[in-house]
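User: My collaborator sent over this chain with a note saying "see what the structure looks like." That's all I know about it. Can you take a look?
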Amino acid sequence: MKRILVTGGVGFIGSHTCYSLLENNFNLCVIDSLVNSNIKSLEKIKYIFKKKKIDISAKLEFLKGDLKDKIFLDGVFKNAEQQKKPFDGVIHFAGLKAVAESVAKPFLYWENNVIGSFNLINSMEKYDCKTIVFSSSATVYGASTKRVLNEVSKINPINPYGSTKIAIENLLNDISMSLKKEWKIAILRYFNPIGAHNSGLLGENPLQKPNNIFPIIINSAFENKTMKVFGDDWPTHDGTCIRDYIHVEDLAEGHVKALKHLFQNKSQNITLNIGTGKGISVLELIKTFQEINSVKVPYVIEKRREGDVCKLIADNSKAKNILNWSPQKSLNEMCQDGWQWKCLNPNGY
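Assistant: Without extra context I'll predict from the sequence alone. Here is the result:
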């Protein structure tokens, strides 16, 4: 079975994707700096499989390291080759991802996201591993006025986080143009992943103060602490921002299907939106969370936050057609699974 290198595989999306990859019989080597993640997520994955009487210990390897460290990265690929267990492909999640933090610390984001990705792709080229699924973001579209965004919508990031993502996309596109017959590339632009694994054992566990809305909603409900909603004067039906929320399990399945597609087809470079195609406002998300879980989410309206955009909704038809993938989980399930994770793991992992 094919062996996959997963960067940032200990984090929220990475760990759920690792679970899905293992379900699909891939062997994994996960590298993570553990700057904003907890190694216990991989232990939870092993435990979930153990409950099914499946031992995946030999299929899951972990290495702590940072993509900015060229020597470490080259060593990972070299050791895999020497052990006659070379990597067949890479899924690249590793990177910083908070919009507000990127506005405050652009140097940090360009160093971690762009330089780290450059080092990874350089090592892949050096050791003849030329299949990659890259975790990009809908933030590359910026403040679009379109109702829904497709893959050819205007690229115009308005914050450093989005700028770093499009820089990495451009690097991959340049490599693809130069070496068309060698590289297989899937760039997945996903929208707002929320929820948690249906077992309640895997979930979002930011070690630093969360910046994305769903863990903030969860913490607000759990601690009865007032959260901030940034702006009620956006040009939307209720004045709050609209986003396309997707269950993290559906997103993980999208990565697996993208990887399989690359393996099953000739060299190519595809860019795909991974979202539900449905827009939900911040207040609608809060209301649904309250109703489905019978809890109160206290909130206060604040002024707009720098770097935010009004509306981001995916046209996911290309991913549906090419990957034969479609999201299965409802907003109710996203809210239920996220709350279950918090209730079973009040202090995280």
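A starting point for your reply to your collaborator: The chain is about 40% helix and 15% strand.
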